[in-house]
């Protein structure tokens, strides 16, 4: 499998350039970028800034797998057309930044479900379906792919709902980010979730969490069974990116410690490992 690191943990501590340089210096060769101020602002149409960041990525021979928007800032499933329009425009801006940065994918979530009125979610899907199609179209025009992520607050919170949505809409070319902590937060067995999405997985996100909570904690600090996840991915012959997405006071140290803990549990990654691992 291909080891990668997400910059989410750096968002409130460092600008994207410093985080990318730190990850490259530690030995990571694949990254995923969180597009959220103050880390990286996707709304700024600043070609000079994106050119500098792309040059940094290229100088370190990094692969930029995908770029995310903060899920708290947008909602493709809103019942308010103005909110949906804002969210589609946000993804359009993100797709342009992805093209400028040389990123492979725009990471898209499924909007937010109504946690208190479950019967409202069918109506919210009526907003989400055409909005998602618009995002796919604007990303394709920008020359970047779309990758869909499971999210515990989203309409497509489980592996089964994602698989069903992609089948019903005919999105054979859209891959999935399966975030094990996001699945664990809704009570889904991550190994089973990965099994349901076999053949669709483009990136796997790893972090830990206590049972019954939604967290992205350092690996080994929670209740997620990473050995079972590894065995399922090996059973599938998965050879794609596995991105550690960990929130901690010391983000780089948390990522490096996570790699070491995974390796100790039998995980194997192509190429060299980061320095502290």
Keyword list:
277 residues; alpha/beta; TIM Barrel; eight-stranded parallel beta barrel; globular; Xyl_isomerase-like_TIM-brl; Xyl_isomerase-like_sf; Deoxyribonuclease-4; IolE/XylAMocC-like
Describe this structure in words.
The chain has 277 residues and is of the alpha/beta class. It has one domain: Divalent-metal-dependent TIM barrel enzymes (TIM Barrel, Alpha-Beta Barrel). The chain contains nine helices and eight strands. The protein has an eight-stranded parallel β-barrel, surrounded by five helices. Strand 5 (145-149), helix 5 (159-169) and strand 6 form a beta-alpha-beta unit. Helix 1 runs parallel beside helix 2, helix 3 packs parallel to helix 4 and helix 7 (190-196) packs parallel to helix 8. The longest helix is centred in the middle third of the chain and has 22 residues, at 121-142. The chain is globular. It comes from Bosea lupini. Pfam families: AP_endonuc_2.
Break the fold down into its secondary structure elements and pairings.
Layout: E1 2-6, H1 16-26, E2 30-35, H2 47-59, E3 63-69, H3 81-101, E4 105-108, H4 121-142, E5 145-149, H5 159-169, E6 175-179, H6 180-185, H7 190-196, E7 201-206, H8 226-236, E8 241-244, H9 251-264
Parallel strand pairs: 1-2, 1-8, 2-3, 3-4, 4-5, 5-6, 6-7, 7-8
Helix pairs in contact: 1-2, 3-4, 7-8
Domain Xylose isomerase-like TIM barrel: 20-253
Protein name: Deoxyribonuclease-4
Pfam families: AP_endonuc_2
């Amino acid at each position: 499998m291909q080891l990668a690191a997400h910059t989410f943990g750096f968002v409130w501590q460092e600008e994207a350039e410093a985080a990318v340089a730190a990850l490259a210096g530690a030995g990571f060769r694949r990254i995923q970028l969180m597009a959220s101020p103050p880390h990286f602002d996707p709304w700024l149409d600043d070609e000079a800034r994106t050119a500098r960041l792309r040059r940094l990525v290229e100088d370190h021979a990094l692969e930029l797998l995908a770029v995310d928007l903060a899920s708290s800032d947008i909602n493709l499933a809103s019942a308010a057309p103005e909110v949906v329009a804002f969210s589609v425009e946000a993804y359009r801006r993100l797709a342009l930044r992805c093209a400028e940065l040389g990123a492979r994918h725009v990471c898209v979530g499924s909007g937010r479900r109504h946690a208190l009125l479950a019967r409202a979610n069918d109506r919210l899907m009526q907003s989400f379906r055409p909005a998602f199609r618009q995002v796919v179209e604007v990303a394709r025009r920008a020359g970047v792919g779309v990758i869909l992520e499971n999210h515990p607050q989203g309409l497509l919170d489980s592996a089964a709902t994602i698989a069903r949505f992609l089948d019903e809409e005919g999105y054979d070319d859209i891959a999935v980010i399966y975030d094990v902590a996001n699945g664990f937060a809704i009570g889904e067995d991550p190994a089973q979730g990965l099994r349901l999405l076999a053949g669709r997985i483009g990136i796997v996100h790893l972090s830990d969490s206590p049972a019954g909570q939604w967290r992205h904690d350092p690996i080994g600090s929670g209740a997620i069974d990473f050995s079972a996840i590894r065995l399922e991915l090996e059973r599938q012959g998965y050879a794609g990116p596995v991105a550690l997405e960990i929130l901690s006071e010391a983000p780089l140290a948390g990522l490096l410690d996570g790699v070491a803990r995974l390796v100790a549990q039998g995980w194997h990654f192509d190429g060299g490992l980061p320095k502290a691992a």
